[in-house]
Design goal:
By secondary structure, the protein is α/β, with parallel strands linked by helices. The chain contains 21 helices and 19 strands. The strands form five sheets. An eleven-stranded mixed sheet has the order 17-16-15-14-9-8-6-7-4-3-19, with helices on both faces. It has a two-stranded antiparallel ribbon with strand order 1-2. A two-stranded antiparallel sheet has the order 5-18.
């Protein structure tokens, strides 16, 4: 009873079915026209011999997946933390269940609600099978690409499966929202976990319940699954026993060749930074230099993806002398590097180097995301020590007030931080995959499951995309630095309260009186526009609060030539965010020119351009340097 026996049995079953597909010819190829049904064409019968062979190959590749998963366990190198995460999810959802179990009447109402929904769906489906035109009981959101295939709507079975899934998801979300006596943080976590579970269980993620996958599998005799399983094995191997989903064709990009290509030199290096000075592109430059402090979660070249999207290149073309920090991708040697270390060996070291090569005692600065939080902390420290080397600050999607922090706050409470600290204590850092996974989980359907389906079920390699290449180029977090950030910012919000201490100084943002340009983005899940707005009110000087369209990345990396999105300007960021929004003016396109005009007004004097390496600090190497190439 080998594969041929199984093939013959499957052939007999297909031939005896009520609606037959056209028979295969002697070479195993399908006939000229698929069978017609009241709901469209059925796929042609596959080549069963090829299908059987591919199923054997599939099992072989599955063995390689298992081997890749077990390899680090056998070596004692398995990463920890998954059990803690699963336990936390069970505990949180258990609290929601407890609230419902304590009130039997509410359970009956909840059961009645989902039963009523399914009766409506069943009735609708029966009418449709009878030839009636009926409106769906529930429909996916317009931006939900999972159900784009026409058969999700035209075929009653797949339409039923889709709507049943959407009804169940809506019901589960309602159970979280309507649970009594849940504290806000627990409710937020429950929402997050329900989103992860519902995303994972979507019928679009399974061959048997996804019409497009069924057609692909039949048409390719299962070869798509073999290719997908091969990529799955490669991705588990690349993740060191954990799945690292490829989101882009990594082979299509090379840092310094077709990504991060703005000309410049590394002019300074220490244990945690390389400082890049970019080559001028204008006959004169603004006298006051610009220092960019990027996040150390991922890498600086988000601001230098390519010539068309590069914010750094655009700044150079406007006549700015641009310096940018490139953070090291830390390892165990950097375990004790804390926030103060990043201030002193990062921002302060960069300021000293800039003064050496330009002779300027004051600079303009930009801080992005956590780099902006560090810049805010640094400004408060400099105000306390009367250090005036930073003349103005621009913040990109930065939080200094974490009272309304974004969705990442679901990962932050005493128990979860303690678990993270225990993991970091083993190696001296938080593994890059942890942070990358956390960001992907904020948009699981877009950043996890769409690629899982494309890569492992359709068997298609992802297309080259510079932004997603950057997104997957993850970085580690030094233990001391990350612990300080989680506790002092997310958990206790000390900076905005005036309670944070650094370098022996009590930090007070109200003492920061330099001009500030504070950019938020409307759809930001990491640093919400409301949170950035409230942070604007913590400073003691003039603040221009500007909100751009789109999200945390696309709202920032929005060059003027693309004429995409929009931005809003308004009065001083006072009162409530809603009141401010009512008084704003919308502008089409990029905010970059408006920002540069703001910056230039402060110090318009121009001088001859400065050549990187042509001064007290010789060039160490070409941009983008070496630290950016260290992989996690």
């Amino acid at each position: 009873m080998g594969p041929k026996w199984g093939v013959q049995l499957l052939r007999t079953a297909i031939k005896g079915s009520a609606i037959m597909c056209p028979p295969a010819d002697e070479k195993g190829k399908t006939g000229p026209k698929p069978a017609e049904t009241p709901f469209g064409e059925l796929p042609a019968v596959p080549d069963f011999e090829a299908m059987a062979q591919n199923m054997g190959k599939l099992v072989e590749q599955a063995g390689k997946v298992t081997a890749a998963y077990l390899k680090p366990i056998e070596r004692g190198e398995a990463k920890t933390g998954q059990a803690d995460e699963a336990s936390e999810m069970v505990k949180v959802l258990g609290r929601v269940a407890e609230r419902w179990v304590s009130d039997p009447q509410k359970i009956i109402e909840a059961q009645g609600a989902i039963t009523s929904d399914f009766l409506s769906l069943w009735s609708s489906t029966l009418k449709r099978l009878g030839g009636e035109q009926v409106e769906p009981v529930i429909a996916p959101e317009k931006r939900d690409a999972r159900f784009a295939d026409p058969e999700w709507n035209t075929h009653p079975v797949f339409d039923f499966v889709k709507q049943a899934y959407l009804l169940t998801t809506r019901w589960a979300e309602g159970m979280v929202e309507q649970a009594d006596d849940l504290d806000p943080h627990t409710r937020d976590k429950a929402r997050f976990y329900v989103k992860q579970i519902s995303g994972a269980l979507s019928p679009s993620n399974f061959v048997a319940t996804n019409p497009e996958l069924l057609r692909e599998t039949m048409a390719q005799n299962g070869e798509n699954l073999v290719r997908g399983m091969k990529m799955l094995a490669e991705d588990v191997e690349a993740g060191g026993g954990e799945l690292k989903i490829r989101q882009s064709d990594a082979g299509a990009f090379q840092i310094g060749v077709n990504i991060a290509t703005t000309p410049g030199k590394v002019i300074y290096r220490n244990d945690i930074i390389e400082l890049i000075q970019y080559a001028p592109a204008t006959e004169t430059v603004l006298k006051r230099p610009l220092l960019i402090v990027p996040p150390w979660i991922n890498k600086f070249y988000i601001l230098d993806l390519n010539a068309e999207k590069s914010f750094i290149r655009w700044c150079v073309e406007q006549g700015l002398t641009v310096f940018c920090i490139s953070w090291v991708n830390p390892d165990h040697r950097h375990a004790l590097k804390d926030f103060e270390s990043y201030m002193r060996e990062g921002i302060f070291a960069a300021l000293e180097a800039i003064e050496q090569v330009t002779g300027e005692k004051q600079v303009s600065t930009i801080g992005y995301c956590v780099g902006g939080t560090l810049l805010g902390v640094t400004l408060a420290y400099m105000a306390a020590t009367r250090d005036k080397r930073i003349a103005s600050a621009t913040f990109f999607t930065t939080q200094v007030d974490f009272s309304h922090a974004g969705e990442l706050s679901v990962f932050v409470d005493e128990e979860q931080i303690r678990a993270v600290e225990e993991q970091m204590a083993e190696r001296g850092y938080l593994d890059g995959a942890r942070m990358s996974g956390a960001f992907n989980m904020l948009r699981p359907n877009d950043l996890i499951w769409s690629y899982a389906v494309n890569n492992y079920l359709k068997g298609k390699a992802p297309t080259p995309f510079d932004l997603l290449y950057w997104n997957s180029d993850s970085t580690r977090m030094p233990a001391a630095n990350h612990s300080f950030y989680l506790r002092n910012c997310y958990l206790e919000n000390k900076l905005s309260k005036g309670e944070m201490r650094l370098g022996g100084k009590l930090l007070d943002l109200k003492k920061v009186t330099i001009p500030i340009y504070n950019l938020a983005t409307r759809e930001d899940h990491i640093a919400p526009a409301l949170s950035v707005f409230l942070g604007s009110q913590t400073f003691g000087g003039p603040v221009d609060y500007v909100m751009a369209g789109s999200g945390h990345i696309a709202g920032v990396v929005n060059p003027p030539t693309k004429v995409k999105y929009q931005y809003w300007t308004g009065p001083k960021p006072e009162g409530t965010f809603e009141e401010w929004m009512k008084r704003t003016e919308e502008h089409p396109g990029s905010w970059w020119p408006q920002w540069f005009a703001w910056l230039e007004r402060q110090a318009p004097k121009r001088v001859k351009p400065r050549i990187p390496g042509d001064g007290p600090l010789p060039a160490l190497e070409d941009a983008p340097g070496s630290y950016v190439n260290i992989k996690a």
